[in-house]
Amino acid sequence: MYAVEGVVMNVAIGRRGAIIFPLNICVDGYENGCIYRFVTHIHSDHTIDLDKSIVFSELLIGTPITIDLLKVMGFNIPKQKAVPLDYYQSLDLDTNEFAKLTVYRSDHVPGSCQVVLEMKNCRIGYTGDFRNPGIKTDILKDLDILVIDATYGDPSYVRESEENIMNEFVKLLRKLLVEQPIAIYAYHGKINDVMMKLRAWGIDTPFILPRNQWNIYMVLKKYGFDVDEVYLENSREAEEIKKSRWYIEFNLASKFTYMKRRSGLAHILVTGRYGKTVIGRGNVWIVGLSGHADFKELVYYVKEARPKILIVDGYRSLYAHAFSSYINQNLKIKSIVMPF
Ligand SMILES: [Zn+2]
C-alpha cells in the first residue's frame, strides 16, 4: 500500500519500471515477490527484467501474439508458465479473493494490449502504449485507478494526421526508388506495420528482411499479418532481387547509426520520436510515424475514461509531470506521477 495525499493506493510504479498491481501482479517489469508477470507488448521498455520473471514468477501472461513473438526474440519461456490471453479474455487468479485479469485491445504493435484487474472492491487498469484511443484502442472505463502511458504528454506534441504523413512518406519512397534501393529502419513491430501500410498505399517493391525480422514476420504471418513479396536476406531469391537494385530492406532502428553509412542505398529511419513529418540530409531521411497517442489523444482518453485516480507513468515518459498537471487542472481528475 502507498499513501498519496491521504489516499491509500494499492498500485505503484517501481524504480525499474514495473507497474505493480495488488496480489503480486507485475506488469511490464519485475519486482521481488512478483508471482504474475503480465507483458503488454514486445518493446524493450516493456520487457524489462523478463528473464527474472521467467525464473521467479509463476505465470507469464500476454496475448498469444506477444508470447509467440517473445519466444522468437530469444526469451526462453517455459510452456507451463505461459498463459496466452486473447482480447476480451479473462484469467481468474488463484487467490483467496475474487480477482480477474482481462485483456483489452490497443493499437500500437501487433499483439499489444491493455490490462484490467478486477477485484471485489476495486478496478485497476493499465493502458500500455497506444494510439488512436476510442478507435482501435479501447478506452478503459469505470476504473478506480488508471495507469497511463504519456510518451507525448507535452502540449507541444500535436502531430499531423497519419494520412498526411503516409502521403509524404510514399512520395519520398517513389522518388528515391527511381535511383536506388532503400533501407528502412524501425522498431520491433513497427517494421511490420510499415510493410503493411506501404502495400496498402500501393508500394509493390520487394521487401527484404534480415533473419531476426524474418522470424518475427513468420510469427505474424501465422496471425494474419501477411504481406506480399517478402524475402529473407541472403536467400537465393533475395540475392536475385538485390541485383535488380529495386527493393526495400528493413532493419531494426538500433542499427541505423552504423548501417546508414553504407553507400548505394537511401536510408530512412521511421520513428515517432521526431516532431517533423519528413526531414532529410544527403541520402538519410527521418519519417515521423508514431506508435503513440499525441497530446490531444491522451487528453481524450482520460476525459472519456474518467478514472477516480490517474497515475501517469513517469518511468517511460519525460513529459509525465506536464501531462499530470494538465489533467489535474483542466479535467479535475486527481492525477499523480509515479515512480515518485
Ligand atoms: Zn511500445
What are the SSEs and their pairings?
Elements: E1 2-4, E2 7-9, E3 12-13, E4 19-21, E5 25-27, E6 36-38, H1 50-56, E7 59-62, H2 64-72, E8 82-84, E9 90-92, E10 99-105, E11 113-119, E12 123-126, E13 145-148, H3 162-177, E14 182-186, H4 190-200, E15 207-209, H5 211-222, E16 230-232, H6 236-244, E17 248-252, H7 256-259, E18 266-271, E19 278-281, E20 284-288, H8 295-305, E21 309-313, H9 320-330, E22 334-338
Parallel strand pairs: 5-6, 6-7, 7-8, 12-13, 13-21, 14-17, 14-18, 15-16, 15-17, 18-20, 21-22
Antiparallel strand pairs: 1-2, 3-4, 4-5, 9-10, 10-11, 11-12, 19-20
Helix pairs in contact: 2-5
Bound molecules: zinc ion (ZN).
Zinc ion (ZN) is lined by residues 41, 43, 108, 129.
Number of domains: 2
Output the structural class.
Answer: alpha/beta
Strand proportion? 25-35%
**Distance between the ends:** 14 Å
Approximate helicity band: 25-40%
From the 3D structure, determine the CATH topology of the largest domain: Metallo-beta-lactamase, Chain A
Shape: globular
CATH superfamily of the largest domain: Ribonuclease Z/Hydroxyacylglutathione hydrolase-like
Which stretches are low in confidence, meaning pLDDT under 50 for 5 or more residues running? none
For the record, what CATH class of the largest domain applies? Alpha Beta
Bound molecules: zinc ion
Count of alpha and pi helical runs? 9
Strand order of the largest sheet: 9-10-11-12-13-21-22
Q: Please tell me how large the radius of gyration is.
A: 21 Å
Mean pLDDT: 94
Biggest sheet layout: 7 strands, mixed
